[in-house]
Amino acid sequence: MTSPSPTLSDSSGSSKHDNPDSWEIVEGLRGAPATIQEPYGHHGFLLKRRKWPLKGWHKRYFVLEKGIMKYGKREGDIKKGKVHGCIDVGLSVMSIKKKSMCIDLDTEDNLYHLKVKSPEVFEEWVSKLRNHRVFRQNEISTYPERHLFHPHTASSPSLNDSMRRLEEAENYLQELNLLLKSMEVMHRTCSAPAITTLQVKKKDKRPRRWRSKNNGKEGKSTLQVPCMSSASPRLHASNPNLSTSDPPFQESSPESPDSPTPVSRLQEDFCRLANNIYSNLKSAYTSLSSERNRIRHSIDLQECPAGSHSLVHQTSNDSRASIPESITEFFDAQEYLLSSSSSENEVSDDDSYISDVSDTISMDTCDGATHRHYSVSSEARMVRRRSTLPAPCSSSSVSLWNILRNNIGKDLSKVAMPVELNEPLNTLQRLTEELEYSELLDLANQTADPYQRMVYVASFAISAYACTYSRAGSKPFNPVLGETYECDRPDKGFRFIAEQVSHHPPVSACHADSTNFTFWQDVRWKNKFWGRTMEIVPMGTTHVTLPEFGDHYEWNKVTSCIHNILSGQRWIEHYGEMSIRNSNSSECQCKVTFVKARSFSSTVNEVEAVITDSDGTVVHSLFGKWNEALFQGAPPSATCLWRANSLPENHEQYYGFTQFAVELNELDPALRALLPPTDTRFRPDQRLLEEGDIGGAEEQKQRLEQLQRDRRRVKQDNNMKHQPRFFNRNDTWISNNTYWEQRREPGFRKIEFPILW
């Protein structure tokens, strides 16, 4: 007895109506499952109605394949895995309105309103959706255990509860987004110069020029430039649009229909919504964690036979080789579950897809790693390094506006800043932080493929910016002329020296060597203040050589910009293009693009790179975020090349330092006798700031600056020029390779140095 096969006329039919302006519900599959040929995919732009409470339509790029429709902002985003939503057409109720050329897809969790402007395009999309819908429903009916992954099917109570809390958090986020825009309007208005009452009265005739597009509220009638709040200078948030503190406003008049919302009320609403979101997300995270543990436990019970060892001890070479494929499958399933339940977040174009890509590095890399000991001592001494600073940072009461208002558009390297704006590290130590992930250069020196070597070198160049993410609230000390710094790290396999070789213009030179690489650069910065932002433009070239292959890589640095200098939450971004080339070979090049952030978008800190051959053909592509991770390939099968180390606990209270930065200014008693007296660790103002003595640090800072002026005056009077001790200048400043020799014999205590402090 054969079962009747479904007919296309039945399955693709619609409930007909005589009125062309009425909605037609497209009927689904009828009859028993049968073999149906897979339809061709379809893609293109459609208009999609924005989610409530946002109004209007926006254009999105849709891709329809095998009954699943994904969409994003543009085609390139879909290829990169930046999917805003995913719709299972087979599990959705589809209805169309021919006159207005609208298509509605009801997924039970979300209702998608789509529209096109051309009748031909409308008919084409309707036809494709019908064919894919029948195909998808037939697949689900034939293989329900393989294709049906609806999150509400046989889900646990904890999972249902977490989904409910996530939906509540999404509503709160949308409300919070509108509130943030209102607060940002008030911030922009507040940072303007003072306006007299007479001028305001003249502008009252045209109040809409000051009206916010989002909430229709005006700015204050009397505005003042605010001083920085005590909480604003140090803390940093992952979303640059968020602000944890607001400048004080003056109430000008009693509230009227056109008067703005009071700041106190906005702050209360902001805190209330933030607390609601936090509690919901925390509960959802707890539920999802318990659900994950339950699933892991059930998988272990299914896969582990009786009397066998744990899965950890069973791992073999075969199972290792299958890890990337299994993770890829899990990524696809996880992406579908998340998108089918929450569908999208149109308020912020989040790039959380990066954290889902497989975080795997080839096992050959781990097994083939060489011992990395390169120290001045014959035996690597085990050093227990500190895990925190002696004292937390103090809140700043300095008004940056009073300091910077007369220096807009000028180079700030010659402007004296109070010590409260500094962090207890200086620029020479900041250069050392670029070597925190030096293991990437070790991998490059052990890789035979020249294109993959370039991949690791590019990853190292990008990783140098990771330490800046949480450091927008303060600036490093400027080194005095002749100041030095050394960092001998046997655990990381390198030794590093740096020296301030010029004061006007300020130039810092550094050199690091290892058994696997040599690293050097000289850098000069230009700082310019543009009213609300400070731009930092580095000049100089970074050099890396790999002795195993004779490669010599060179690259430039990109521009950095600190936002919200005067008020609000400070945050830093890097943008521009970095070109990496091997001066000893033209076989491959690399172009790295640090993407500039856009207004009112969470798409920040993105970086993209391509490695090309001599003909310009792309061999490898990289993507990620300079503060989080970097991946090679295309999602979802991309491989993680580098991931930033997690920040220490309570790092906001300690200048946002990474663990590596915490260790840089530590003065070990055994090291004290070996260092030259010009080493940064002996600098008194920086040491006092680290210990929390702000007054003493400011006093010492002024004393050191005066000493430097006196030394410069004496040299000018005697026609003397400063000669750096450990670096020589050719085209660039290069180490003369005498530092470690003099340190060992005769020792710095027997050598005369200038008195810097």
TrEMBL record:
Which SUPFAM superfamilies does the record associate with it? Oxysterol-binding protein-like, PH domain-like
What Pfam family does this protein match (any one)?
A: PH_8
Q: Record's Gene3D superfamilies?
A: 2.40.160.120, 3.30.70.3490, Pleckstrin-homology domain (PH domain)/Phosphotyrosine-binding domain (PTB)
Task: Cite the record's Low complexity compositional bias ranges.
Answer: 1-14, 245-264
GO CC terms: cytosol; endoplasmic reticulum membrane; nuclear membrane; perinuclear endoplasmic reticulum; plasma membrane
Answer whether the UniProt record assigns the keyword Cell wall biogenesis/degradation to this protein: no
An individual GO BP term: bile acid biosynthetic process
Basic residues composition bias: residue spans: 200-214
Residues annotated as domain PH: 39-134
Family matches, as InterPro entries: OSBP_sf, Oxysterol-bd, Oxysterol-bd_CS, PH-like_dom_sf, PH_8, PH_domain
Please provide the record's keywords in A-Z order. Answer: Cell membrane, Coiled coil, Cytoplasm, Endoplasmic reticulum, Lipid transport, Lipid-binding, Membrane, Phosphoprotein, Transport
Family, similarity comment: Belongs to the OSBP family.
Report the protein name in the record. Oxysterol-binding protein
Native organism is Neogobius melanostomus (round goby)
Q: Source organism lineage?
A: Eukaryota, Metazoa, Chordata, Craniata, Vertebrata
